[in-house]
Amino acid sequence: MLRKILFFICLIIASASQAQNKSLPVSKPKLVVGIVVDQMRADYISKYSNKLGSGGFKKLAMQGYQCRNTHYNYVPTYTGPGHASIYTGTTPAVHGIVANDWFDRTENDTVYCAEDKSVKGVGSDNYAGKMSPKRLLSTTITDELQLTNRGKSKVIGISLKDRGAILPAGRSGDAAYWYDGATGNWISSTWYMNDLPKWVKDFNERKWPDHYLSKPWNTTLPISYYTESDPDDSPYELPYNGEAKPVFPHDLPALRGTSFDLVRRTPFGNTMTKDLALAAISGEELGADSITDFLCVSFSATDYVGHQFGTDAIELEDTYIRLDRDIADLLQYLDSRIGKGNYLIFLTADHGAVVNPQSLIDKKLEAGFSDPKVIADTVKYFLQSKYGSSEYMQSYLNDQFYLNRAKVDSAKLDICEMQQGIADFIRYKIDGLQDVLTTCNISTTEYNEPFRNKIQKGMQPKRSGDVILLFSPGWTDKLFGNGKQGTTHGSPYPYDTHVPLIWYGWGIPAGATAKAINITDIAPTLSFLLNIGIPNGCTGKVIEALAK
Questions:
Q1: What is the pLDDT of residues 349-400, one digit of tens each?
Q2: What is the DSSP string of 195-261?
Q3: Which of 79, 219, 520, 525 is catalytic?
Q4: For residue 16, what are the CA distances in angstroms to 5, 19, 22, 366?
Q5: For the whole prediction, is pTM greater than 0.85?
Q6: Quick one: DSSP state of residue 131?
Q7: Active site residue 520
Q8: Which phi-psi region, left, alpha or beta, contains residue 120 (left: φ > 0; alpha: ψ -120 to 50)?
């Protein structure tokens, strides 16, 4: 009898222990999912809160850990530098992705951050496939995961935008997949593979772009519910080509023509991205064993819709309502396939966006538009008058002047003197111009003033310009349509630098902090959580509340 009692006691203890172990997280997450929402301002979750469900953004925020005061610590705040900085833990001064496009003095031409003419497209025969991470100068957290695990981890990048898939996956990623608007297919390049895997081919064969462009885009909820946005017919929004007004419903079948590219500029581009991410988890068996895998997902449709319609459009609000449901689908799938507590998620954005300057002007707030042609012509006039030739300027791009160094040297001119001359001449001649810095000064001065410091952190000597302009808050280049529609980004101001950062899942406590955090802190925090190497150019700091 005593033996039976002891047996049942041991059985109860063993069962309780097993139940407790099931609730405990594994020693390392089976899968890390990095989510970047393109052009997502930090205030959007609270702004749209009443329209969001309980299984998407709110679930992440309420059950995860929110870093509510996260900012970019450099300029320009663009997509390419943003994705690179998130995953390298450093700024463009180190990782080298100084913009989406920059003037390359060695090639004497403008180059794109992900282009690589030495590779070929896989799944595409056009320029869209000639992409790789070769211009990235430092390792990413995904590279470090591969180094630690001797290449046994699987690392996949997915985004409508090539740079949104390629830069996060790093130079050693197993694959990056991006959308080719000319064909409607998801493609890659020979940097990664010589042929698309079957699961990607199967996904392409389902012709999702045709499906999503086969019916009008109407609001998810009755349009009167969208009280967080401007009226539907707003002068600050850019209609689709072929539309008289930017209003719902948007007749996508009539607007698409023969192209598949329109789907990017609808919320269905995000849904398609989410579906490919789910297919990748299944097709690559991500998170299926004890070796941590990494899936990098960037939702780009928010950026395309935001640029066209602005920060206060019903179109943007509806896009976030639909994205909230896409994220809920992703979380539900991860729970069922990987298991709660077995995966780690972080969600952030690559930059924010400015409220349409014309709408600010109409509200009697300070804002304005600059004209790149006028600015370039002003400097050309100075160079012609002072040095006898306007050809000393090679390019004006990203609010930066690139001087022809070879021509300056050949004429035996002082490059620093020329830079300063341009800065002094233009400083009071351009409306909205707040400051002008030269690379000669930047290279010899450590700036503590926050905006100058951000310019310094964004400058890489071989890839940045000679004279860098800083415009006042609310000022942008001309926009779209009549030059005053939609929105843009790129500045050092909070509307562009302040982004969400939420951690969720494996090892993450519920909570929040208002402590100042830089976007470059994400990668080193992941390094500590995963117990792997820190990216080799990392300048960020560990978020201590998460890495204890």
A1: 999 999 999 999 999 999 999 999 999 999 999 999 999 999 999 999 999 9
A2: S--HHHHHHHHT-HHHHHTSS-B--SS-GGG-TTS--SS-TTSPPPTT-SSS-SSB-HHHH-TT-SG
A3: 79
A4: 17, 5, 10, 64
A5: yes
A6: B
A7: no
A8: beta
